[in-house]
Amino acid sequence: MKAKMAKKLLAGLLAGVSLMVLPCMEAGAVPVLNGSNGHYYEVIDSPITWSDANSAASAMTHLGAAGHLVTITSSSENIFLTSTFGALAIHLHWTGGVQQPGSTEPADGWSWVTGEAFAYSNWEPGEPNNSGGTEDRIVFDHGVHADGKAWNDLNGATSADGYVVEFDTVPVPEPSIVGLLGFGLTGLMLARRRVRGRTSN
């Protein structure tokens, strides 16, 4: 009887541990949570054009939310990306910033792929400059300033070093260890009562 109870206890504990581990098991890098806005971010290192990066980011999901190229709408978000991943890690990585065709060059008509307002920017001094007359996408480039890694306009057909993905989702709380153990122990106690009831009859 004790051996059976021990097996049930072990099975309950293993089930609890698997519930905690399985949500974290994903291929590649794990997206990082920005606690101030509930969004997750991931840096992808792969030489890629803006269009291909945009398609790849849109095909990604995390916690049920579709990804998109990062849209940076505040200084705190830009600082978070710089401090979390490092200025070198996001250097020459695409964002979701795009200039609409026919806009007055070089500074007008910028927008985000999600349609969010383009109310914040962190251009490197002298940027955007539409060098060569074809720069219409935003990439992390140049130095680091008070607001974090600076931005540059770049031709979208250029192969940058990678891209940054954003997932607009508030995380679903994972069950705590104490809660899982409590749940498992409650089940074991009920099973034990049933066994006692059978043996006493």
Summary tags:
nine-stranded mixed sheet; 5 helices; 34% helix; alpha+beta; elongated; Mannose-Binding Protein A, Chain A; 201 residues
The SS-based structural class is alpha+beta
Radius of gyration based on Cα positions: 25 Å
Number of helices: 5
CATH structural class of the largest domain = Alpha Beta
The CATH homologous superfamily of the largest domain is termed: Mannose-Binding Protein A, subunit A
Low-confidence stretches: 5-27
**What fold name goes in the CATH topology slot of the largest domain?**
Mannose-Binding Protein A, Chain A
Helix content: 25-40%
Keywords: Signal
Domain C-type lectin: 36-153
Signal peptide: 1-29
Protein name: Lectin C-type domain protein
